[in-house]
Amino acid sequence: MIVPGDPILTAAQMRAAEGRLIAAGSSVGELMERAGAGIAEWVHRLAAGSDVLILCGPGNNGGDGYVAARLLAGRGMAVRVAALAEPRTDAAAQARARWNGPVEPFSDAIAAGSAVFVDAVFGTGLSRPLDPTVARKIEALAPSARLAIAVDVPSFLNSDTGENLGSDAVTPFDVTLALGALKPAHVLHPGASRCGAVRVVDIGLDRADIPASVARTSTPSIAKPQPSTHKYSRGMVAVVGGPMHGASELAALSAYRAGAGYVLLLTGGLPHPPHAIVRQRWSADALADERIGAVVVGPGLGRDDRAREKLDVALATAHPLVIDGDALHLLDPGRLHARQAPTVLTPHAGEFAALFGEEEGSKIVRAQAAARRSNAVLVFKGADTVIASPDGRANVLPAATPWLSVAGTGDVLAGAIGAMLAQANHAPFEAASAGTWLHATAANMLNRCFLADELADALPYALERAHG
């Protein structure tokens, strides 16, 4: 079962973790037995007595499949095994030798099909495109089976990036059994949409020995107001507006809904509900109030000289900043290195490319590199959202509802992060993670077609869920 906060390991990190287990006295065969036992337990539980077909590849992923087949047959289940090729590792060869049943040719097994299909062909570490003939055969089984289960990662995914490797199939697996730890493909699209429900199989890794720099986002720690709390201690957020008043209004409203105690909207718009938002016209000293806990600049700002002047003023202050929307198009990331106060950038893919260029690597790797380059916390938005810190830490948000793809939801996110950043108990990385979690949780609670205004109104309910 996936636990919020679970670490996410690349193929190299996973090999290193397994290497430490082997150095401590475990053998590759023992790790394979543990993996196979975990796979067998899940398949036995989910198959509900149906016949099972396990496709085994030539590497250790295939070896895990042979072990699972042997253990399932020992439980009295009808199990068939098909092999893509002869085992190429000693441990996989030993696992096959211990399987007492027949091994079918790959093509024959594909033609016969099965109620339950287990893909143990290729796992973590595959980086080259899959042979098109092999890919098509594997793809043919997933939609025809009642239950399709992948071992570690579906065989046509790059485990480090989530990219498809020579496969155009759209039918997802029902379940993916991640061996030892989550991999980037389980949380980054398009891979995440192909994995189905992801469950982690324990193979004996010491969690204290697993690098925790990249993890799945956990429920944030957000303090409730105490009897001594007042509006400024709950956080004062200033939103720098521009000609598109609706965007800055949404950011201001969401800052309030996410728990800020005082929201100042610096815009030329006319007052209207909610009247709790304090509206003032912009001036060069508008951000001089030392009680301001965070400034949100960008939603509705515009991209003209007037907008650039406002951004320059915000950058020159000692206030923590959330830079979003239009301001990202006016920003030179190099300027942020001189800032002593925390800065959070919230780009989507187009804004990220404009700021940092077309970087190589997974979305996690690119976000981490951009955070280091800009000396700012990055919230790299999208169907999968990565929050990265200059110190190398990263959180990956589980997929939120696709109904978020509507105008104004980014403005709501900027305001929610601003509210978290304004609170004294939140460092910038934690504030960005908390605000992003609230935003996604509110959207998932609505779970239907909604307006950005309604998303802002749902933030208090997400906040209550965070309070437990």
UniProtKB/TrEMBL annotation:
Q: What is its EC number?
A: 4.2.1.136, 5.1.99.6
Catalytic activities: (6S)-NADPHX + ADP = AMP + phosphate + NADPH + H(+); (6R)-NADHX = (6S)-NADHX; (6S)-NADHX + ADP = AMP + phosphate + NADH + H(+); (6R)-NADPHX = (6S)-NADPHX
Cofactor binding comment, as recorded: Binds 1 potassium ion per subunit.
Residues that coordinate or bind AMP: 381-385, 410
Task: Please name the GO terms of the biological process aspect recorded for this protein, alphabetically.
Answer: metabolite repair; nicotinamide nucleotide metabolic process
Q: Which residues form the YjeF C-terminal domain?
A: 214-466
Please describe the quaternary structure of this protein: Homotetramer.
Protein name (record): Bifunctional NAD(P)H-hydrate repair enzyme
Q: Per the UniProt entry, what species is this protein from, by scientific name?
A: Sphingomonas tagetis
